[in-house]
Amino acid sequence: MDSKALELQALTTLRRGFLYLAVASLMIIVGMASIIGVFFFARVSVVRGLTEAAILFFITAVFIGGVVALYAVFKKIRPGMRQLASVDKSFGICYTGTNLILAGFIMLILGLLVGAVALMTTRAGILVFLGAYMAALAITFIGYILSFIVGAFKLNAKYGIALFTAAGVVYILDAVVALSIRIGLLSAVGHFLMYIALGRASLAQAKG
Fold it and tell me: Which of 2, 4, 135, 179 is the most buried (most CB within 10 A)?
């Protein structure tokens, strides 16, 4: 496969990944909205069955959204960044970012398992999990910056599509919000902007 075909394939793969991420973010937002809505109206009247249904919907939406997001990052965005890095080495830092996200996820799972086992014998298990969680959160946050924020600005520099810059700015705002409370709305907007911009880049690359 020549470099032009590989670059087009990378853009297409990335575009699909960001579409999946946008859908996953919206699912999680809708799930959170259902819970917030129930607790908001609970001050007026509470229907127990409705509350239980909202909680079940929230759990289902977050679980499915999380699975879709993981699939998008590890099966689409990570391979897409690897392909793009093989064409333009400057994108290697973005691929490294996806590896950090993967490492953070693995660390979180291992920390949960080790913490659960340790908790059966000592109360220190919760400290093991919290330590792993904080470390995983920090690694994932760095990976997010390299993959999404740096990636968006590098894509703009390469293809000259302003929507990439807009997505990068939205991701920066999302990163700032994530330090206090994560609602997911900003990331969803960023993913949709990336999806549209990658579509334009793919079309330009195909015509060129």
Answer: 135
